[in-house]
Amino acid sequence: MPRVSVVVLNWNGLADTLACVDSVLENDHKDLHVVLIDNASDGDEWSRLQSEFESEVRVTVIRNEENLGFAGGCNTGIRFSLESGADYILILNNDTLVDRDFLSKLLRSAEVNAADIVGPRIVRDDDLQSVWWVPSQINYYYPALSRELSADVSQEVNNLVGCCMLVSKRVFESVGLFDEYYFIYGEESDFNLRAVRSGFKLFYCAESMIRHKVSKSWGVEFHPNIGYYKMRNRIYLARKNFSARHMSIHWVYLVHYFVLRVGGALRRGNVEYAKAVVQGVRDAFRKGSGGRRAALGSSGGTG
User: Fold this and answer.
1) What is the pLDDT of residues 40-64, one digit of tens each?
2) Is residue 66 within 8 Å of 138, Cβ to Cβ?
3) Which of 120, 132, 274, 295 has the CB geometry, 3.0–4.6 Å to 265, for a possible disulfide?
4) How many angstroms separate the first and last alpha carbons of the chain?
């Protein structure tokens, strides 16, 4: 039976995190261990997590002394998991609830389909008939040409969402961990790209299901920090991974995205969001954080 380490990241989301971990511990796959990372939460969340799981041998609670974002926070758990001998590492958002058999179905899918990274069906917690994330074959160079796939069919894909992904240890050992410069948003796309280029197989398993409560990190879609990181990281990902020829194509998409984000924000009167997007462009070229890290936190991945 493969040993699975479940990495859950908490940042000021105690209630969600407790519910998530409880649902994982009820899973029918017995050889699992939860690595719960507190990403420098405010108040007494760290001590409350310690107290809650003090007698639970299947849970290890680790605290980061500063907020390392989704990428850095998860990397703390991934390193611990690899050192502890995990065969697979499951990255799981703390604002999710999992079905009792979701993990055994993911493992079975990995074995049957010779897949190295597997992701489940993800539905909205407030509407189980509504699929939160739809699998696709992404055209990384020009995303408008990406092809959306059926969420009802298990199939090979070229990307999976960081909200929930089961990763063989071989992938991390080969391509490395998440790039911590992203902080939040885009780190899983970068990781997917590196995995595919190294010959690893990504697979979507429609039979396995989890429920997602949707983003709790900032509470609103048009928070300036979201605009900043999504803009900055799109440019960074492209400059890091694409050839000059592909960048010439991708710039058309990036300019289009910039105009939509800034124009839409100004029409809504959200000047701070528009300024954050512009700052994201500047920082992408000088590889700076613009002071944003100190002003925000991250409890989860792309959600």
Assistant:
1) 999 999 999 999 999 999 999 999 9
2) no
3) 274
4) 31
Among 282, 152, 278, residue whose Cα is nearest residue 207: 152
Distance CA 39, CA 147 (A): 35
* Segments making up each domain of the chain, as ranges: 4-212, 224-295
Residue-level pLDDT at 140: 82
Note the pTM of the prediction, 2 decimals: 0.92
The secondary element (H helix, E strand) that includes residue 170 is helix 169-175
Both tokens of 216, joined, read: 């709790």
CA distances from 236 to 23, 124, 244, 285, 287 (A): 36, 30, 14, 8, 8
| Superfamily of segment(s) 4-212 | Spore Coat Polysaccharide Biosynthesis Protein SpsA; Chain A (3.90.550.10)
Per the structure block, which two tokens stand in for 190? 């970068």
Instruction: Give CA separation, 181 vs 25, 111, 257, in Å.
Output: 32, 33, 21
Using one digit for the tens of pLDDT, what is the confidence trace for 89-139? 999 999 999 999 999 999 999 999 999 999 999 999 988 889 999 998 988
The DSSP bridge partners found for residue 146 are none
